Amino acid sequence: MDKSVIDFNVRLRTIRIRELIVGIILTFIITGVLTAIFPVFDDGELFMILFMLIVLLLFIWALRGTRGLEKNFDNLFKDDVKKEILYVFLLNILFAGLFVLLISALDIFIGFGDPNWVPMWDIDTANIDSSVWILDSITAIIFAPIVEELAFRGVLFNRLKIRTGIVPAMIISSFIFAIGHEPGGITSAFLFGVCMCILYLKTDNILIPMSVHFINNVVATIMEITSFDIYMTQLPWIVPSLIITIIATVLLAKYIIKETQAIKKIYS
């Protein structure tokens, strides 16, 4: 990390991967000590909130004294930027439901001909304590968009693209980002990570992928709490949902291919 750099965007690009790793190790140590002193943080959700809070504080410390964040906020509200944020969000949130909808549609289709058919995708609602929902929501909505974008796009992607080139850096950083998600969502998380790399590279503004990530997690949390995603897998909603999701998948693929080709031309 080059402390002599005062531009926020440039300072972020100078943070090295080894410094990120040291920061994560230090965060584990601090979190472990605080958990030993205050056992209340031994709870899984509180532990994660504390962990992400410490990582965020380390990023704030690393980026202290820089300028340019105000300009990033101003650029965030430009009309073309807002449109792309919404477009990328919609494509990714719709694609995330593709496999569930396909399997559910197949279950319904086979079930019409075979009443004894055991569904491949058994969706069930679980009663979860409201305090757990709140803590999970705080992690997903507040901390995850900020910390994950700073770590995976701000540091990992930035440093990898210097060593491997842009496309391999997008693939590697997005894969590492994806494996931290649930097995059923790894593919969608991977493509989401690729889109965040594209947005970040196009704008050099980490707030833009953060915004998409924030909106995505807000909507995903609401859908989970309301069981909206479960309703979409049932008749008659599954038919229009599947059609819309397939269209979004095609558009998402076109977006990634088009933008990646454009980026390769610029940086070749």
TrEMBL record:
Question: What domain of life does the UniProt record list for this protein's source?
Answer: Archaea
Query: A single GO molecular function, which one?
Result: endopeptidase activity
Query: One Pfam family for this entry, by name?
Result: Rce1-like
Location of the CAAX prenyl protease 2/Lysostaphin resistance protein A-like domain = 133-219
Decide whether keyword GTP-binding is in the record: no
Is Ribonucleoprotein one of the keywords? no
GO BP term, example: CAAX-box protein maturation
Q: Where are the transmembrane segments?
A: 20-40, 46-64, 85-110, 130-148, 160-179, 185-202, 214-231, 237-257
Key words, A-Z: Hydrolase, Membrane, Protease, Transmembrane, Transmembrane helix
Q: What is this protein called?
A: CAAX amino terminal protease self-immunity
